[in-house]
């Protein structure tokens, strides 16, 4: 663009003005969403409890306490996928 007038100069390429409101791509969903999930203090607390139980007992029974944490994280991930998909479709 010429700075003196607003008419495009021949040979100038216009950039695509696309606004995206979705947070994730297929490649970045898992690492970014895990970071979001474990930025919540409750999830960190339960992860520490699972690690301590496994370190002390080291049995399969200690790993059973992993299921509630995994359930909460997976349900939150599914909710985030649905919300992000709706944002993508609205763009």
What does this structure look like?
The structure is a single chain. The two termini are 28 Å apart. Helix 1 (29-37) crosses helix 4 (66-90). The longest helix is centred in the C-terminal third of the chain and has 25 residues, at 66-90. This protein has 91 residues and is mainly alpha-helical. 0% of the residues are buried. It has a domain at 29-90. It is built from four helices and no strands. The protein has helices at 29-37, 41-56, 60-64, 66-90. The chain is 60% helix and 0% strand.
Number of helices in the DSSP assignment: 4
Mean pLDDT: 83
Structural class: mainly alpha
How would you characterize the largest beta sheet?
Answer: none
Proportion in helices: 55-70%
| General shape | elongated
Distance between the termini: 28 Å
Number of strands: 0
Regions with pLDDT < 50 over 5+ consecutive residues? none
**SSE ordering:** HHHH
Portion of residues in beta strands equals: under 5%
Radius of gyration: 23 Å
Characteristics:
91 residues, mainly alpha
């Amino acid at each position: 663009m010429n700075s003196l007038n607003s008419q495009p100069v021949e040979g100038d390429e216009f950039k695509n003005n696309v606004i995206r409101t979705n947070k994730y791509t297929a490649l970045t969903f898992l690492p970014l969403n895990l970071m979001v999930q474990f930025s919540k203090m409750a999830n960190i607390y339960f992860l520490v409890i699972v690690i301590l139980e496994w370190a002390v007992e080291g049995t399969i029974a200690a790993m059973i306490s992993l299921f509630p944490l995994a359930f909460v994280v997976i349900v939150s991930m599914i909710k985030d996928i649905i919300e992000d998909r709706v944002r993508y479709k609205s763009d």
